[in-house]
Amino acid sequence: MTTRDTLNSATRSPAQIRAMFNAIAPTYDRLNHLLSFGLDVRWRRKAIRMAKAKRGGAVLDIAAGSGDLSLDALALEPSRIVATDFAVSMLREFDRKLRERPPLPIDLVACDAMELPFRDGSFDLTMVAFGIRNFADRLRSLKEMFRVLRPGGMTLILELSEPRTPVIAQGYALYTRVGLPLIGAIISRHTSAYRYLPSSIRHFPIQEEFVSLMNDAGFSETAARPLTFGVATIYSGMKP
Predict the structure, then answer these.
(1) What pLDDT digit, counting tens, does each position of 2-23 carry?
(2) Which residue in 5, 19, 65, 212 has a CA-CA distance of 20 to 30 Å to 26?
């Protein structure tokens, strides 16, 4: 485990993280769009385009939250989508969205990413957006993603990251440490959540370290694709 992993795990316990996401669930979507200047929408759609080879397959969306990535994955015309999260209030927000639409091939399951309640080889695509940095044991969660994939299956992980270009990195650091907590507190009235979230980004492994972790979990053809000057990254890997 890297130093960054240790720091992030020590910042909040799984129970605290669950309680935090349950608390901010009603404003989560609005804040995501606002705090990322709307770029989160483009990032998710880019990730889905990378999975076009899995069109028609079974999809598992882990830490699905209020469901934006699952809804974008409908573009792949999947046989089914299973959306999971351990914060029940987030899934309730997703269920509210689904009730406003015609019936869709999406099932919601409350579970922990470290113990997925699915058989080996159940899915063609596993994916996580903005969630894995909050997992208590990232390697274990990656091994679970690997386990439930069919041979030839793909995993996609979209996560926020720190830019490396000095000027951009300085501006980003100022925004995440001052602007993001302030805006988040005003809209969600949950000050500690939007102090924790920037910290979780800083403590997430750098790209090379996380790709190495994916390799340790068994994935092949692993890659990291920076987005928007490195503010976000799409990680990908295949199950041989």
Answers:
(1) 333 333 333 568 888 888 888 8
(2) 5
Give the containing element (helix H, strand E) for 113: none
Q: Going from the N-terminus, what domains does the chain have, and what CATH number goes with each? A: 3-238 (3.40.50.150)
Q: Pull the structure tokens for residue 81.
A: 């989508």
C-alpha span between 166 and 186 (Å, rounded): 29
DSSP class of residue 100 equals: T
- 226: nearest Cα among 197, 199, 206: 206
- What is the distance between the alpha carbons of residues 118 and 84, in angstroms, rounded to a whole number? 11
**Residue 36 in tokens:** 């990322």
List all residues 6 or more positions away from 80 whose beta carbon is below 8 Å from its beta carbon.
58, 59, 105, 106, 107
Name the token pair of 124.
């063609």
Q: How many CB atoms lie within 10 A of CB 213?
A: 21
Please give the structure tokens belonging to residue 67. 């469901």
- pTM of this prediction? 0.90
User: How is 53-80 classified by DSSP, letter by letter?
Assistant: GGTTSEEEEET-TTSHHHHHGGGG--SE
Helix (H, G, I), strand (E, B) or coil at 237: strand
* Whole-angstrom distance, CA of residue 136 vs CA of residue 122: 24
Q: How far apart are CA 166 and CA 191, in angstroms?
A: 28
Give 82: exposed, middle or buried? Use CB within 10 Å, 0-12, 13-18, 19+: buried
pLDDT per position as a tens digit, 98-124: 999 999 999 999 999 999 999 999 999
Helices then strands, each counted (H, E), the chain = 11, 7
